[in-house]
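[Automated response] Your request has been received and processed.

Submitted sequence:
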Amino acid sequence: MMIFIGSDHRGFELKRFIKNYLVSNVRAPAIDHGPAEYESHDDYVDFAQKVVEGVLEDPWQNRGILICGSGHGMEMTANKYKGIRAVLGFNIAVAQQSREHEDANVLVLPSDWLKPDEAATIVHAWLSTEYGAAERNQRRLDKLSKIEEKNFK
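Generated structure:
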């Protein structure tokens, strides 16, 4: 598993914290897709694209973490890509369920609403939770795949 991480200016400080957390605690390769420095006028779309492209190299194994102020822009951008299942992870239960039920491969964190330690706990829970593969969950993912096939030509 590779972990790709990126943020915009509003998520920049939290991204640095989470990246350090990943290196120290998760011990999985974490690829930082920017920004390298704080830039108040950057666009979340640019960084979301880079992270998603990394995840798509192996969407069943790789994971992405995107961070912006509300999380909305990053989530919307990521979900424009076929094979991406991005979720806004604003608490532990939501993050765990997104993995167990929906096999989410991108976690989006709202930096305006989370303290760094809360965000790290959410990331840990999300990365530690496996897809449950219950029949009903797989049926739903299969339906999502059919929608993608129809709409992403």
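Summary generated for your ticket: The chain has a mean pLDDT of 96. The chain is about 50% helix and 15% strand.
If you did not submit this request, please reply to this message.
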